[in-house]
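[step 3/7] fold_predict: job queued, chain A
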Amino acid sequence: QEPWSGREGRAPAHDEMLFIIFHQVSELWFRQIVHELDALHAHFSKPAVDDREIQPILRSLNRIAEIWKILIAQVDILETMTPQGYIDFRDYLGTGSGFQSAQFRLIEIKLGLSRERHIPVFHADFDARLRRESRTAIKDAEGAPSLFDCVDRWLARMPFLENGGYQFKEAYRQAIGQIFDDKEKRLPANIDPQAREKEREAIARGRQKFVSIFDEQAFAALKEKGAWYLSWRAVQAALFITSYAAEPALQGPSRILNLLMDIDEALARWRYRHALMVQRMIGV
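[step 4/7] structure written:
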């Protein structure tokens, strides 16, 4: 916590201390998230996830979601710094950027964001400017299953899709087919023909995506286009869990899926807040 602006006998820029502490606190929370992700990986990597492990899994997921809330909220503190206050020490940061955090990039990889899906920044790979030990840690994480991979495999093993004489897939297919049939029947007759045709096309696309859930070849074709990320079997299991979330046996799995969505949303919100903050400070 020694401001660079205070070196060589200069008076330190007042707001640099806030900037330093903000990022140090963020890195500490990132470290805790990495710790929780490693624990989750250990739970989900087992051949079968025992019911007794559901609570530790939920605890870690909930902790990560709560930490992201803190990370988002603390941006408010950094925004008490004015653009002028930032300019006073900006030159001392060189080419440094908050998005170059090695731990943040490690979190992305451990969650499941592959290198191929990264948006190119800094005119090089996202880890090109990191220290050797950080690049090694990221490479090791890329060589191991991510949380996304582990959850996909866990879902794909879900045993409830066919239970006795009840075929969930067929029952759901019929219900969805009826929903889209009703949508087409309710299309207003008095709207512009072009608008009506667009509505029909939207309904057809929606029907195609839902039908693909139960057609492996159609699903594979849509997945190739990026319409799906989970595997075919995992999507069916997630749909089953969501549809019967109130059943005692599925309340834990349903909570897991909801917490994963909470984390995904919080991460997106944190990125957005960070981008807005940068725009506010430097106007780009």
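[step 5/7] annotate
The longest strand covers residues 162-163.
The longest helix spans residues 248-282.
exit 0
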